[in-house]
Structure formats: structure tokens, C-alpha cells
Amino acid sequence: MKEKEENESERSSRRNFLKKVGVGVGAVSIAGVAGTSVFAGNKSKSGEKIKLLSPDGTLVEVDKDDIKPVKEILNELKEEARAGLPNRKFCMVIDLARCKNARKCVEACQEGHLLPKDHEWMRLYLLQDDNHTAKYWFPRPCFHCDKPMCVSVCPVGATYKRPDGIVLIDNQRCIGCKFCMTGCPYSARVFNWKDPEVKVPEGHVYDPETNIPAVEGTVGKCIFCADNLRKNELPRCVTACPMGVIYFGDILEDTVTNGIETERFSKLMLDRAGYRYREELGTLPSVYYLPPTQRMFPVESGLEDSDESIKGRYKNAGPR
Amino acid sequence: MEADKKLIRDLTPEIEKTSIKWYITFFIFFAFFAIGIYGLILQIDKGHIVTGMRDNVVWGFYIVNFIFFMGLSYSGALISGVLHLFHTGWRKPVIRMAELITIISLIIGPFFIFFCIGRLDRLYFLFIHPRIQSPITWDVIAICTDLFGCFIYLYLSFIEDFAILRDYTELNVPPWKKKLYKTLSLGFTGTEKQRKILSNARMIMAAMIIAIAIIVYSVLAWIFGVTLQPGWHSTIFGPYFVIAAVFSGTGLLIILMWIFRKIYHLEEYITKRHFVNVGVLLTIIAAFYGYFTFSDYLTKWYGSIKMDSILIDKLFTDYYSLFIFANYIGILLPCIIIAFPKFRTIPSITVAAVIAVTALWVNRYIIVIPTLETPFLPIQDTRPDWINYSPTWIEWSLTLAGVSVFAMLFMLVSKIAPIISISEMQEKDKIEILK
Questions:
Q1: Which string of DSSP letters, residue by residue, matches B370-435?
Q2: Which residue of A236, A249, B212, B303 has the lowest C-beta tally within 10 Å?
Q3: How many interchain CB pairs under 8 A, A with B?
């Protein structure tokens, strides 16, 4: 585990470095710092050093053989984003007993992924299954299904499933046919109906793991914060939630955490009778729910602090 | 090749001269087309926000028009293909029109998909990054094959006519047109051997386009059928869409027969008999189509899986009048009009066809939209356009542009080629004389 972490943090720092330097230098940039063996490692070095100025003004010296055109680096980032993290299978557990529509997860998500205000990758529903059953708050990220309908129907391979369980979208590949949106039974996908008009940080290089910037005419959705995961950090919604509703972890390690407590995934499922939303659809989601038993808050408290536009959404919430 | 002069004169009313009427009509259609293009430019410039589509209803008018136009292309496959295979005598005056409907609607249909795509500039990704798992890729392959096949089939039926026009010395047309006929007739002189080859080729293509057409429309249906959405996830959708397509294609053929008969005074060639025969065909197809519709909705309503019953509720409340029009009036009325001999007049059969075609368009609409308005997770939103779909003027204008292009292409073809096959009609005369 330790080794894995080290390897990952090294890789991620290199990624960030690549991103920083990649665009600034223009036609050429640097790859394969400190001899990591993934891409450039086995190449023999010429020993000839070249000095380059990085975007933040630092002078760096690199081996001539490590210099690659930016296009190649973009492809490498994309290949990395398609391969995913090795020996991982991510999962999420959402404890419905704790959710009170605080919407901090939504805000953190929008902020972190530079989403326009009307784009919600994480969405909060007020559900009631039947007249005689109780209402409950239902946060819905992308379910990152193991049999994802969206991936099956994509005609150009823009959306894909990684071995670590994450479903991503390459919005430089997406043609915007919206078939994935009709394919997804959970309405998890949003479309960029107009230019998103977000301020992208300078020097930012597009990578499906951040999906920044959003592109008009393409599809976006929750990406389990794949960029954070590469840095060994939790998804933004997990850390933002004041109630600790959302647990995130690795099903192979049988561990999930909400940032405060760490639990055995299997024990949580056993003790709390965890389930998946609409199991019968056969999409095999990676997101599990714990039923709202012994709630920490009455369901109405979820409407107390929210403004009118949010309250309006749930006016007609009822049995269905 | 010699042909009856009167026949040529009657069947090629637009080849030699262009009437003022033609120009005016063409201009009107062109104006609609131009408005559509303006709408399209706006849509490309501002993004799809200018349409009525939003995150729940991600497919709107464009997809409805797409399946509708693809369905119209069936008239060629059925009328010309099937009737050709079975050597049905009365088909001859209508066969050319049916083939033209096929090829023209096949050209227009895919454009509506292009309007629906968010990144038109990446359309070629469909060819350079195709994934065979996706029904859209199946569709791309199927439509390309269909276009190719139908084009060959249409062209084969034109060769003899081009040869006739080439050899008709009195034809007063500019030299480029004469040259065109000479090139397009491929040196056909009407020898026994040539006739045999041509007839065999047409036979083979007639059989092929029937098969290809069934595949194309089934694949189209599977785009909906393979998803998990309530209302779409149905095993019956393949054959249901095929029969619906034949229904609309036949209906449109009757409408065009009426229009051409009126404009070009073809009363001599297109008679009441043709209207009744195609009308009866329409009735038979309507019966099948009604049966499929009934059986699809009955199982959804009776079995009553929760999501299906929510959808059925929506259809019988918000969409009540559309549902009644599309699935009751649109099917039963044409049947009643045509089934009783005393109602069978040329205008009434045409009215029945107009009702059938419009109702079928509405039927496509209530297949696509209500399902998208009832996702598994309820739509909880305050933005009205996110909850219910209503098309904007841009979608309307592009729809009208599609219809206009249909008419314009028909008008352009009538400038170059006979609207009723001269060679076929001639053959028919010979047979009648022999008798």
C-alpha cells in the first residue's frame, strides 16, 4: 500500500508538472522527470541539457531526449486517464439516514469542477416510494456502473469504463449525440447546451480526469473526482459534506471512509442492509445506499435553510 | 429507341420549359429553406440552448423528424420493390414516384440527426472512431448501405427513360441536358441482351432494398429499444417501426399521386383505380400497424410495471388529445374511409392519407417525448423548460425546411427526368395491344 501511494504521488506530481509546463513552453515541453519509467524511463539519455522557462518564471534544465511536443503529452495524459489507477475498484456508500439536503456536496462539486451554476453533477432528490412509506433525501452522483449503458451506446468511444471502476468522458472526443443521456436510467448526465463561460486557470491542460474546461455541445457528469483520486485525496463531495453522508473507498480493500470515520465496506453493508438503487435494471452501480433508518434529522429539516428556488423543486415531491 | 410522342410530352411536362408557376412555387419553398438555414446558423452559433431540448428531453423534433423521414423512404421499398417482384401491373405509373420518395427522404432524414448533434464539427468521428457496440454505428452502416442501394435501384429504373429522351430528336432542351441524357443512358439501345441484363439487375435490387429497408428501420427502432427507458424498452419496437414506416410511406405516395395528377394533368395515367389500390394497401397496413400499437400499449398498461404505468398516465393526461389523434383517429379513420366502397373517391382517399401521415408523425412524437419526460428519478426542477419539452421556432423552421427541401428536390428531378416512367408505360401499352 505504502509503495503504491508513493508511486501514485510521484506520478501525480509529474502530471501536475506536465500540466504546468506543458502549455507554457509552447511547441515543446518536458516529460519523464526523475526517471520514472512509465513513458520515458528506459530511453537512453543524451546527457545534453537544455534550459527552459516554465510558466511561473522558473528556469528548468532538462535532458534533450525528454523534450516532446505538447500534442504527445496530451495524448499521454489521455492514455493515463483511460488506463485508470492500478489495482483499484472504487465504490461509494451514501448513508440516507444522515442526509438533510445541506447541498454542500453540490456546491463543492460545482466549484471544484468549474461547473456553471445550472449544472449539477451531484443532484439531490426528495423521494418517496409509496403513500405509506416515508420521504427521504437522496443524493445522486454518477453511479459508475459496472455494466454502464452510456458506455455501451456511445458511438465514438468518448465515454469509457476504466478498470478501476470509474466511467469518464473525453469531451474532446464527444460528438454530442446525447445517446448516453437517453441510455442512462439515472439522469446522471448533463449537456452543455451553451458555452459554459467558465474561467479556466491559466496553463490548464485538458484531461478527462478533471474534465475542465467543459465544452459546448458535449456531455458532462460526475467523475468520482478522478483527479483527486490520483492525488490520493477523497472526492470533493465526500469532504464537503458536514454530516458525513458520503463514504468513499475501495471495494478490493473492503474499506470506505467519509473523511471522519473509516469503515469496513462489507460490515457496513451487513449492519445497515445496504442496497443499490434499482438493482433490477442490471447496470451494477458502484454506488451503494444505506436505508434511512434511525434518521439523524427529520426529513423536513432539509427544506429549512434552503432558498425559494431550491424549495420549489420539491413542491410536488410525492409517491412514485 | 422510339417512344410514343404523346407519352413523352405528357410525362415530361417540365423538361423543355419552366413555367412561372414552377418558379414561384420553388421560390416559396426556397424561402422556407432559407429560414431554416438561418435557424441552423443561430443554433450553431449560440448552441443548442436555442432549441426546446434540455437535460431531460434531450431528443426533440429533430429525432422525431429523423425517424419520420426515414419511415417515408419505405414507400419505395414497398411499392416499387414488392410490386416489382410480384409483377403487379397497375404499379407502373406510381413506381417512379415511390422510388423518388425513397431516395429523397433518405437524403433528408439523416440531416435531422446532424441538427441534433452537439458538435457537428466532429461528425467524422463516427467514421474514424467507430464503436460497433453502439446502435448509432449500426445505423450509420445501415443508412449508408440503404442510400447506396436505393440510389442504384432508382438509377436502374431511369436508364431506359434517359435513352428514350436521348433518342427523341424533337426534344427542345439545351445541349447540356442532351449530353446528360447521353451520358446517363450508358449506351442503352434496347437490345434483347441489354433488356435482360437490366431487368435482372432491377429484380435483384428490388429484393435487396426490401431487405435493407427492413434492417435500417429495425436498427432505428433499436436505438430506442435497447435502452432501459420506460416505453422504449420493448421487444416489439423493431417490427412495429417497420410497419409504421410502410404506413407513412404508402400514405405519402397517395398524397403525391394526388398533387402530381392535379398539377400536371395526369388524369389519364393515374386513375381512380390507382388510388383505390394503394388505398387498400394502406388499409391493410393500417390494420397491422393498429394491431402492433394496441399490443404494445396493452402490455404496458395491463402488466403495469410502475414506470410504465406512470408513462401511460402521462399519455392519457398531458398527451391525451395527441394520443387519441395518433392512435385512434389516425388509424381507424383511414381504414373506415377506404374500407367502404361508397366513401372511396379520389379526394376522400387523399384526405385519409393526409390524416394517416400526420397521425404517424404525432405517433413518433408521443413515443419520443413523453418517455424522456418520465425518467426513473422524478424530474425535480423549477425551470419549466427542463420539465416539459416545447419546440422553439428554430426547430419548427428546420422541420419546415426539411419538408421544403423534399418538395424542392422533387421539383428539380422533374426538370430532368420523367415523373412517370415512360418506358414502363410503353411496355404496358404493348401488352395491352397484344391482348
A1: HHHHS-SS----S-HHHHS----HHHHHHHHHHHHHHHHHHHHHHHHS-SS-HHHHHHHHHHHHH-
A2: B303
A3: 134
Structural domain for A229, as ranges: 90-313
Distance CA A252, CA B208 (A): 53
- pLDDT band for A44, please (50, 70, 90 cuts): low
User: Are A187 and B377 in contact (CB < 8 Å)?
Assistant: yes
- Please determine, for residue A32, whether its predicted confidence score (pLDDT) is greater than 90: no
Residue B382 lies in a domain: no
Q: CATH number of the domain that B35 lies in?
A: 1.20.1630.10
User: 0.80 exceeded by the pTM?
Assistant: yes
Low-confidence ranges of chain B (pLDDT < 70): 1-3, 427-435
Distance CA B223, CA A246 (A): 35
- Distance from B63 to chain A by nearest Cα, in Å? 11
The pLDDT of residue A297:
87
Q: CB contact, 8 Å: A296 with chain B?
A: no
pLDDT in tens, B240-262: 999 999 999 899 989 988 988 88
Work out the pLDDT band at A20, boundaries 50, 70, 90: very low
The alpha helices in B130-271, defined as continuous H runs, are: 135-167, 175-184, 192-225, 237-264
| Same domain assignment for residues A121 and A240 | yes
Q: Do A153 and B136 touch (CB under 8 A)?
A: yes
- Quote ipTM for the complex: 0.88
Question: Is any Cβ of chain B less than 8 angstroms from the Cβ of A182?
Answer: yes
Instruction: Say if the Cβ atoms of A156 and B125 lie within 8 Å.
Output: yes
User: What is the rounded CA–CA span in Å between residue A232 and residue A17?
Assistant: 17
Same domain, A111 and A45: no
Q: Are residues A178 and A203 in the same domain?
A: yes
Between chains, do B378 and A317 touch, taking CB under 8 Å as contact? Answer: yes
Give domain status of residue B30, yes or no.
yes
Interface test with A, best of B113, B376, B381, B389 (most A CBs within 10 A): B376
Chain A residues in contact with B122 (beta carbon < 8 A): 156, 173-176
